[in-house]
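User: tokens in, sequence out, please.
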């Protein structure tokens, strides 16, 4: 493995709190998955960007995918508004209003999530999990 392809050199990740909140919400509301992605070449300070995919390509690209739930406080994750549970209880006439309220609740949740970014997380490397600092940008 070339030195610049070695993720163990990463000490900190710069990320947008909005990207983290949006990635988590996207995965809850849509097919596919959204993550925070870091691509080689790797060095001590890296930028993690939102990435949406249908098929995991990390083996081909050497990228590292950081699940957004690993950078947001757990109690905030637990409070994510669940549309399905509310819709099951509703009549079809009320479902449009429920969807609008749900969209508003997700926006409010995202604002809270942006304020709840952890100070560190772990990334997966060939040598096992590695603790990295999280630096908020944006």
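Assistant: Sequence out:
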């Amino acid at each position: 493995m070339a030195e610049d392809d070695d993720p163990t050199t990463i000490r900190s990740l710069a990320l947008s709190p909005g990207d983290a909140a949006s990635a988590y919400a996207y995965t809850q509301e849509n097919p596919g998955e959204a993550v925070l992605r870091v691509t080689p070449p790797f060095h001590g300070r890296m930028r993690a960007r939102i990435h949406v995919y249908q098929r995991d390509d990390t083996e081909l690209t050497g990228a590292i995918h950081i699940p957004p739930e690993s950078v947001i406080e757990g109690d905030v994750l637990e409070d994510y508004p669940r549309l399905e549970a509310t819709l099951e209880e509703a009549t079809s006439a009320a479902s449009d209003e429920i969807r609008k309220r749900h969209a508003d609740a997700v926006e409010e949740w995202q604002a809270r999530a942006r304020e709840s970014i952890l100070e560190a997380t772990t990334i997966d490397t060939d040598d096992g999990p590695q603790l990295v600092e999280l630096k908020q940008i944006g």
